[in-house]
UniProtKB/TrEMBL annotation:
Choline transporter. It is a multi-pass membrane protein. Keywords: Antiport, Cell membrane, Glycoprotein, Membrane, Mitochondrion, Mitochondrion outer membrane, Phosphoprotein, Transmembrane, Transmembrane helix, Transport. The gene is LOC116046738. This is Choline transporter-like protein.
Length: 695
C-alpha cells in the first residue's frame, strides 16, 4: 500500500459525527424520561387512566366500557378519534339488557348496574340526579370484549339486526330504538381502533411465532453460509447449480400457483375480482380468490422468462464471470474471517434499528393527556380544552349537559412543541448510523481483499489478520471519511422520506401538475441515491488502498471506472447478476418452506405450526429478513469482486508487467480480464489513451 495518514477533513467530520451521536443519546434519554409506551398498549378511560395496567387500582379492570355507544356515530369521532361519551374501565362487559329505571326498582339489579357506574352512586340518589351528573349510563346491553373494548353483541335474525335477540331496545329514556341504530356507533368506533386492532393482531402473531421465525432465519443463515463455503471450493459447479435451482424454484412457484388457481374453480366467491374485493386487513382473504393466484402466476412467469433470456444472451460473459468468482474464492480462501464479518455488521445494524425503534416509541408516547368539552346541544365551549375538575367550572355552568372527557395525548410545553423536530432528528440519525455501519463493513472488507491483491508473494506478504487489521485502520484513520460519505447518503435518503410524506399528504389533491412534479422529484432522488451508493462504494475501496480523503478517492474511483467502462459492464455487472441469483435462490427456498409451515398446507406441520391471525406475517418476515441475511453473506463476494476489479484496473495503469514495474495480479486474473479486454475492439485505443493521459 501507498498509505496516506489521516487528513484534517477526516478529523472535522469525525468530530461532527461524535457530537451528533452524543446529541442522539441525549434525545434518547429525554424521550425515555418523558415517554410512556403504556399509551399504545392499554385503552384509556375518560380520566386518561390505563385499563388493566398492573400495579394500579384498575389492574383488575382491563376492559373499556362506553356509556352510550350510539354517540360514537358522530362524524367528529373520525376527526378527533374519541367518542363524545363517558368511558370507564370495568372488569367485564355487560351480559344482559336493562335500563336504569328498571334496575333501580330491584336491589340486586341495581347493585349489578352500579358496577358500570362512576364512584359515588348510592341507593338514596334519585334517577334524575344520577343521570344529570352523568354517573351512570341510561341503559346496559349485552356486549362482548373486542380489542379490550365493550361493543354490543349485534347479531342478525331473518335479515334484521338484533341485540340480545331483540330487534328493538329501550334507550333508558323511554324511547324504543332499532338495534340497527347501534351499527353506526359500532362502525365508527371500530374505524377509530382499526389500525390499532391490526397492529395488535400482528403483534400477537409475532409473540406466537417469534421462535419459529428465528428458526427460519437461522436456516437462511446456515444455507447462505453453506453456499458461500461451497462457492469457495466449488465455484464453477455451484454457480451452475444456483442458476439451475433458481429456474426450478421459480418454475415450481408457477406450477403451485396454477394448482391453487385450478383448485378454486367453482368455489363460492372465488371469482370475485381484486377491485371488487377492495382493501382487506386480513390478507388471507386474497388467497381465496382465483385472480390473486393468476396474478402471481403471471408475475413469476415473466420473471422466469427474463432470467432465461438473460442467461442465453450472457452465456459467454457468464463463463468469464465464473472465472472471476473463482479468483475471488481464492482471495476469500486467504481471508476466511471475511465470511463471518457480516455477522458483526448485522449485530451493529440490529443495535441501530433497536435504538431508533425504542426512541421513536417513547417520543410518540411522551405527550400529556388533553381533555376537551363534549356536549349534545349547542355550546360555545364545544371541543375546547378543559380541566378534569369540570363540575365546578364556568363552562359547566353555561353548558349543563356538557362533559369534560379525555380526548388525546398532546402538550403545550417547549418539549412538546419541538417533538416533531426530535422525531425528525431520530430518523435522520438512524439513516446516518445505519449507513455508517454499512460503510464500515465495505471499507473493512475492501482493505482486507486489497491486502491480498497488492501482496506480491501471496499469502506471505499479507497481514496475519487481514480483516482485523483493515477494521483497525478504518476506525483509526477513516472514521471521518466514513461519516462524511454516509452523511451525504443520509441527506438524500431523508429528502426521499420527506417527498414520500408530501405525496401521502397530497393524495387527495386534484392538481395533476403537482403530482407530476412530485413524481419526477421522487424518481430523480431515487436515481441520486443509487448513484451516491455507487460513488461511495468505490470511494471506500480507493480509501482502503491509498488512505486518501473521501472526495479525492470518490473522484479517482469514478474516473478509473469510466476509463474501464467496457470491463465494468461486461464483467462486474454480470458477476453481480449471478450473485443476485444466489440470493434469490436462498430466499425462494426459505420462503417456500415458511409458506408450507405457517399456512398449515402440510399435514405433518399442522399440530406444530402456531395458530395465527395472519399467517402471512411470519412468512413475509422470514422472506424479507432472509434476503438481508443472504445479501450480507453474498456481499462478501460482491465486495471481493469489486475490490479485485478496481485493483486490477489500477494495476494496469500503474504497472506494465516489466521487471521494474511488475503486475501484482495473479496469472489467472490477468488471463481472465486481459483476454476479455483484448476481445474488445476499442481496447487498444483505450489503452493508448490511458498511456497518453498518464504521461
Amino acid at each position: 500500500f501507498n498509505y496516506v495518514p489521516v487528513e484534517k477533513m477526516n478529523i472535522v467530520c469525525c468530530i461532527l459525527f461524535i457530537i451528533a451521536i452524543l446529541a442522539y443519546i441525549a434525545v434518547g434519554i429525554l424521550a425515555w424520561s418523558q415517554g410512556d409506551p403504556r399509551k399504545v398498549i392499554y385503552p384509556t378511560d375518560s380520566r386518561g387512566q390505563f385499563c388493566g395496567q398492573a400495579g394500579t387500582p384498575l389492574a383488575d379492570k382491563p376492559v373499556l366500557f362506553y356509556f352510550n355507544i350510539m354517540k360514537c356515530a358522530s362524524p367528529m369521532v373520525l376527526l378527533e378519534f374519541q367518542c363524545p361519551t363517558t368511558q370507564m374501565c370495568v372488569d367485564k362487559c355487560p351480559e344482559k339488557f336493562m335500563t336504569l329505571v328498571k334496575a333501580y326498582t330491584n336491589k340486586n339489579d341495581f347493585d349489578y348496574y352500579k358496577t358500570f357506574c362512576k364512584e359515588g352512586v348510592t341507593n338514596t340518589m334519585g334517577i334524575p340526579e344520577i343521570l344529570k351528573q352523568g354517573l351512570c349510563p341510561a341503559m346496559l346491553m349485552p356486549s362482548k370484549p373486542f380489542t379490550r373494548r365493550c361493543f354490543p353483541a349485534l347479531g342478525e335474525r331473518g335479515g334484521v339486526i338484533t341485540v340480545g335477540n331483540n330487534s328493538k331496545f329501550d334507550d333508558g329514556r323511554g324511547n324504543m330504538r332499532d338495534a340497527k341504530d347501534l351499527l353506526d356507533g359500532v362502525t365508527n368506533a371500530t374505524v377509530v381502533i382499526e389500525a390499532r386492532q391490526v397492529v395488535m393482531k400482528i403483534f400477537e402473531d409475532f409473540t406466537q411465532s417469534w421462535y419459529w421465525i428465528l428458526i427460519g432465519l437461522v436456516i437462511a443463515m446456515l444455507t447462505s453460509l453453506l453456499f458461500i463455503v461451497l462457492l469457495r471450493f466449488l465455484a464453477g459447479i455451484m454457480v451452475w447449480v444456483m442458476i439451475v435451482m433458481v429456474i426450478l424454484v421459480i418454475g415450481y412457484g408457477i406450477f403451485h400457483c396454477y394448482m391453487e388457481y385450478a383448485a378454486l374453480k367453482g368455489t363460492a366467491g372465488s371469482d370475485v375480482t381484486l377491485q371488487q374485493l377492495g382493501f382487506q386487513t386480513d390478507f388471507a382473504v386474497y388467497l381465496q380468490i382465483r385472480q390473486t393466484w393468476l396474478a402471481f402466476m403471471i408475475i413469476l412467469a415473466i420473471v422466469e422468462v427474463i432470467i432465461i433470456l438473460l442467461l442465453i444472451f450472457l452465456r459467454k460473459r457468464i463463463l468469464i464471470a465464473i472465472a472471476l468468482i473463482k479468483e475471488a474464492s481464492r482471495a476469500i480462501g486467504h481471508v476466511m474471517s471475511s465470511l463471518f464479518y457480516p455477522l458483526f455488521t448485522f449485530v451493529l445494524l440490529a443495535m441501530v434499528v433497536a435504538y431508533w425503534a425504542v426512541t421513536a416509541v417513547f417520543l410518540s408516547t411522551s405527550n400529556e393527556p388533553i381533555y376537551k368539552v363534549f356536549n349534545e346541544t349547542a355550546c360555545d365551549y364545544s371541543r375546547t380544552t378543559c380541566n378534569p375538575n369540570y363540575s365546578t367550572s364556568l363552562e359547566k355552568a353555561r353548558c349543563p349537559d356538557s362533559m369534560c372527557l379525555f380526548a388525546f395525548y398532546g402538550g403545550e410545553t417547549a418539549y412538546h412543541k419541538y417533538l416533531i423536530g426530535l422525531q425528525f432528528y431520530n430518523v435522520f440519525l438512524f439513516f446516518w448510523c445505519a449507513n455508517f455501519v454499512t460503510a464500515l463493513g465495505q471499507m473493512t472488507l475492501a482493505g482486507a481483499f486489497a491486502s491480498y491483491y497488492w501482496a506480491f508473494v501471496k499469502p506471505d506478504d499479507m497481514p496475519a489478520f487481514p480483516v482485523f487489521s483493515s477494521l483497525g485502520r478504518s476506525l483509526r484513520y477513516h472514521t471521518g471519511t466514513l461519516a462524511f460519505g454516509s452523511l451525504i447518503l443520509s441527506i438524500v435518503q431523508i429528502i426521499r422520506v420527506l417527498l414520500e410524506y408530501l405525496d401521502h399528504k397530497l393524495q387527495g389533491a386534484q392538481n395533476k401538475c403537482t403530482k407530476f412534479l412530485l413524481c419526477c422529484m421522487k424518481c430523480c432522488f431515487w436515481c441520486l441515491e443509487k448513484f451516491v451508493k455507487f460513488i461511495n462504494r468505490n470511494a471506500y475501496i480507493i480509501v482502503a488502498i491509498y488512505g486518501k480523503n473521501f472526495c479525492t478517492s470518490a473522484r479517482e474511483g469514478f474516473f478509473l471506472l469510466m476509463r474501464n467502462m467496457v470491463r465494468v459492464a461486461v464483467l462486474d455487472k454480470v458477476t453481480d447478476f449471478l450473485l443476485f441469483l444466489g440470493k434469490l435462490l436462498i430466499v425462494g427456498l426459505v420462503g417456500i418452506f415458511a409458506f408450507f409451515f405457517f399456512s398449515g398446507r402440510v399435514k405433518a406441520f399442522e399440530s406444530t405450526a402456531p395458530h395465527l391471525h395472519y399467517y402471512w406475517v411470519p412468512i413475509l418476515t422470514v422472506v424479507v429478513l432472509s434476503y438481508f441475511i443472504a445479501h450480507g453473506f453474498f456481499s462478501v463476494y460482491a465486495m471481493c469482486v469489486d475490490t479485485l476489479f478496481l485493483c486490477f484496473c489500477e494495476d494496469l495503469e500503474r504497472n506494465d508487467g516489466s521487471a521494474e514495474r511488475p503486475y501484482y495480479m495473479s496469472s489467472t486474473l490477468h488471463e481472465i480480464l486481459w483476454k476479455n479486454a483484448a476481445e474488445d475492439p476499442s481496447s487498444a485505443r483505450q489503452r493508448a489513451d490511458e498511456d497518453i493521459e498518464l504521461k
